[in-house]
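Input sequence (156 aa), recorded before submission:
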Amino acid sequence: MSWFVLSVKEKQEDKVSKKLEKMNFQVFNPIVKETKFWSNRQKNVETPLFKSHIFVNIPEQYRGVVFALPEVQGYLVINGKPAKVYNEEIETIQSWIENGSHDLVLLSKLIARREINIKKWLSKNNAGVKWIGQQNVNTLIKDMDIIVKNKLRKVV
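Predicted structure, token format:
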């Protein structure tokens, strides 16, 4: 079985995760605590780490089953094929969440506009953060010859 990234409708990550778990698929929907600010208050809320995306561990022959759910929009596709995620990458994200997202906070505090190489820290699959901006991180995934651009959020 392989892990895939599933795109879902906005704010439907938890609902889709529960439905897929009832179908006996292994699902990972990383949640972080985030501080939301309003004009009169602030509140710590739990939000998905990857908005509108969840990870599903599903055999290749059953990939089409997820489209029975109306909230599912499709798989994240790279070069015409659904993007696979390595177990080590899932474990890394799980450890971030279990450790209170300390690594994500550390990442958000890195010096802006300074090129770094933390390939071993990020994963064991030739991926690495190559550029840190004020509010974004560019990650090079050598196996797929792509650069993934992510915006940073302040996490608690």
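Checked by second reader. The chain has a mean pLDDT of 77.
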